[in-house]
Write a structure and sequence with these properties.
By secondary structure, this protein is α/β, with parallel strands linked by helices. It is 30% helix and 17% strand. It binds 6-phosphogluconic acid.
């Protein structure tokens, strides 16, 4: 496990800006080194200001988006135009404002006959573009109050999928909708960098648990145990000063407004 750097920001707006700058830098680095980048977007509401910042700030022209493959950590089993769809939100806040026209937008096919069929199709798509051992360049994640990531919930059998599966279906998610298609822990961990976004006082409890190694069974803790080059962006409302004590974790606190570019 790499040792995460936790950056504490005064408010959600500055969290979005700092996270967007880091994501853009990771994508530029991947493109410079390999001519292409694979970026995995999370669902939920936390990342939306970061997506907006990426699409609307000067950062928008700092990345060669024509060389970026977009994936999702998970998708809710809903029509693609449903207000609660993860892909709908990312298209509205990031892909459409960037006028992404290429076909390297790999959304879960929610028009498939079943979620299991969609998961098999996503597994095939991952193999086509990443082979069996390919790495994502950036995985953006939020975290639930219960410590779930993507659609991997505490105690679910999806945390122990059949050997080498990269995509699973959760049929009994405690966070609606109950049916979801999700990357597995192994798939999420197969990345050169992870960006975890945590915002708001409702997440203060899970941040405290993050800082206590004893809660190692939480999905987010299990990913952190596997991940490398992890950046955690947390606002003051969610931050717990206990994080300072976690061995090996580095913390920086931004109090002044960082640069805008
Ligand atoms: C989803 C997300 C999920 C999300 C967390 C946090 O489909 O709901 O992929 O994993 O990241 O539930 O959600 P918020 O950012 O809305 O708090």
């Amino acid at each position: 496990m790499d040792h995460p750097l936790i950056t504490v920001l005064p408010d959600p707006e500055q969290l979005a800006g700092a996270a967007a700058r880091h994501i853009a830098a990771q994508l530029r680095r991947a493109i410079a080194r390999r001519g292409i980048a694979h970026c995995v977007l999370t669902g939920g509401r936390t990342p939306l200001p970061t997506y907006r910042f990426l699409a609307q700030s000067p950062l928008a022209v700092s990345v060669d988006w024509d060389r970026v493959h977009f994936w999702w950590t998970d998708e809710r089993w809903l029509p693609a135009d449903d207000a609660a769809s993860n892909q709908r939100a990312a298209r509205a806040e990031l892909l459409e404002p960037l006028a992404i026209a290429h076909t390297w937008v790999h959304a879960v096919d929610v028009s498939a006959p079943t979620a299991d069929a969609a998961a098999a199709d996503y597994e095939h798509c991952l193999s086509r573009w990443l082979g069996n051992r390919g790495l994502f360049d950036v995985v953006v994640l939020g975290v639930g109050e219960d410590g779930h990531i993507a659609s991997l919930f505490p105690g679910s059998s999806t945390l122990m999928p059949p050997e080498r599966r990269r995509v699973v279906v959760e049929h009994r998610a405690p966070k609606p909708p109950s049916v979801r298609v999700s990357l597995t822990l192994m798939a999420l961990a197969a990345a050169r960098s992870h960006v975890l976004l945590i915002e708001g006082k409702t997440k203060a409890g899970v941040v405290r648990q993050l800082c206590e190694p004893s809660h190692s069974d939480l999905p987010i803790q299990r990913l952190l145990a596997l991940a490398r080059n992890v950046r955690i962006y947390v606002d003051e409302a969610a931050f717990s000063h206990r994080c300072v004590s976690r061995p090996g974790w580095t913390q920086e606190t931004w109090t002044q407004r960082p640069p805008t570019s």
